[in-house]
Structures are given as structure tokens and as C-alpha cells.
Amino acid sequence: MARPSSTDRLVRLLALPAWVSEHDGATLEQAAAHFGVTAQTIRRDVDTLWVSGLPGGLPDELVDFSAEALEAGRLSLTEPLGLDRPVRLSHREAVALLLSLGVLAQVLADDPDAAAVLDQTRRALRRALGASSSADAPASPAVPGPQAAPAGVLPAVRRALAGRRRLHLVYVSATDTRTERDVDPLELVSDGTHLTLRAWCLTARAERSFRIDRILQAQVLDVPAVSHRAPHRAPRTAAVEATLVLKPTGRWLVEQIPCEVLHTDRDGTLHVRIRGRDRAWLVGLVLSAGRHLRSVAPADLADEAATAAQRALDSAAAVYACGGTPANGCAPDDGETLDS
């Protein structure tokens, strides 16, 4: 049985007082049916809310339910501490949330169910911002977001997770290396910008992470996914290091990648030291940082990244030269594919 999500429980704990306020005297079973859980789970939620409240934890600073009603199997709030009122957003908070939903819509572009919910939420936010209809709704500012995964990838991943089935992936790494492999999926996670599949890779015989927008194809196999135990590993070799000088616009890298900030210049330029798992990972990181970089050390790492970037540009030029597109590609005259 899947372990209950702590996020789902937090959402339910925040919503329960408001629901009880609107349905005073409702039974535990009715609340359980509404939230899609058991009556015992609702009872545990009430026990948790009973010891939740304002700093200090005095009796009049805690959420309170009627003990008499609860003994009879019913729910009634006696002290909601404001949790019975809907959340109010300031104009700035609503705009920030609208922009965030724009990014999330791009992350989940291949998920029609999520797209419908996000569209409804964005419409509601626009109305809250003062737009009476879609015609006069303020257009959301262009939000840079990740490239959507090829059609069918995300639904296939979700089916494999739901059915505990093995996946066959065609994947392009950060260093533009194309591989095919079978994986047993574990979970979908997100850093707020990209969706990533955590899975056990049968080729590497280890857990790996695959960004959804880098999966070219995903096929659900008629083979059940199985649990794996990581094999005993030899001691790791020393991690490779790089020192990057980033423009102020590159602060996102410091926030997303574990690194040591050596110092920050008065103009916001960042000097950071990064330890990578291997050389190829560092090359991919340098390529990702791109226009946000001022310099890279050691120099041979910068040279290797520049060579990889030029190779990618040459490959792209070859595709367009023969009338292809990045989606369908074409093969050079000597028969060697661009992916080799």
C-alpha cells in the first residue's frame, strides 16, 4: 500500500476546519467521503488540529472542536482561529501565483487533466484581479519555462507509475548523449521548474533521475516493475571540481545546485566552487549556465564545454542544411547518424 502523502495531509488539515464550519454537525463518515479518506483518518486529523494553533499553545490559542460532538461521531468547531475563513490574497500575491501557474502549465503541458485544472485556477485568479471576462482579462506576462516533453511521454510515465510497470526510455542527457534503457519507475518529482522521473535504471543498475522534457520516447512494457536493492559499491573516487564566475543573473544556479559561494562582488557577480559527480556532469552544468557565465576554471573544462557546444551547433546546422528539422532530423551523406 502506498504511503500517504504528507503534502496531501497538510492540505486536508488546512481545509478541514473550513469544511466543518460550513457543515456543522457532519459525521466523521461524511467528512471522510468528502476528503476521500477513512473516518479514522479524519479522527487523527482532528487530534492533530486540537494541538495546533498560535505560538504559546495556551488553551485559547489552539484550534478546538466540540469533544461532546466528537464522542457522538460528529464534527463541530468551537474555536477555528480563522481557519474557517477562505485565504485572502493580496494583489501582489495573486499576480505572483498567476505567474507561477504559467510556469507550471508549461511543466505539465502534456497532462490534459492538470491543464484543465490549471486553466480554471488561472481564470479564477484573473477574475480576482478584477477582470470580468476572458476578453478583458490582463494577459499573463510571458514566462520563460521549460520545453514541453514530446506528446505521450508524461501520460506513459503516469501509467507506468500507477500500474507499477517497467518503462523503455529514449533519453537525451544534459551533455546531449542519446541513450535507450529500461527503467523501473519510482516517483515523479518537481523542483518547480522541471518534472523529473526517479527510477531504477537496469542498465546502470542504480537509481537515476530523468528529466521529463529530455525523454524523447516512453513506452510502457508488459513487465512488472520490481523493487531493487543497490549493490555494494566500491569507494567513490574524488569528486571533480570547478570554479565558476557567474553574472548576477546566474544566482538561480546557486539556489538549485549544491555549491560553495566563495564570495560575491559588489555588482552581484558570484564566485562559486562546485563539486560534480563526474566530468560529463560538470560539462553539462557549464552548458546549462551558458550566458550567465563570466569565466570557468579549470581552463580545460571551459574548452571541453566549448567543444561540446560547437559540436551541437554543427549537428543542428547539418540538420537544417539537408532540409530537416530538429524534430525529424536527417542523416549525413556518409550514413552516420547525428546521434552517434
Keywords, please?
340 residues; disordered C terminus; transcription; CBASS_pafABC_assoc_protein; Transcription regulator hth deor-type conserved site; 4 domains; 4-stranded antiparallel beta sheet; 21% strand; 37% helix; DNA-binding; 10 helices; SH3 type barrels; 5-stranded antiparallel beta sheet; Arc Repressor Mutant, subunit A; alpha+beta
Protein topology:
Layout: H1 6-22, H2 28-35, H3 39-50, E1 64-65, H4 67-71, E2 77-79, H5 91-107, H6 112-128, H7 153-163, E3 165-172, E4 178-190, E5 195-201, E6 206-211, E7 215-224, E8 240-246, H8 251-256, E9 260-264, E10 270-276, H9 279-289, E11 293-297, H10 299-321
Antiparallel strand pairs: 1-2, 3-4, 3-7, 4-5, 5-6, 8-10, 8-11, 9-10
What does this structure look like?
The protein is an alpha+beta fold and 340 residues long. It folds into four domains: 6-79, Arc Repressor Mutant, subunit A (Orthogonal Bundle); 91-128; 153-224, SH3 type barrels (Roll); 240-319, Alpha-Beta Plaits. It has ten helices and eleven strands. A hairpin with a 5-residue loop joins strand 9 (260-264) and strand 10 (270-276). The longest helix has 23 residues, at 299-321. It is globular. The protein starts with 5 loop residues before the first helix and ends in a 19-residue tail after the last helix.
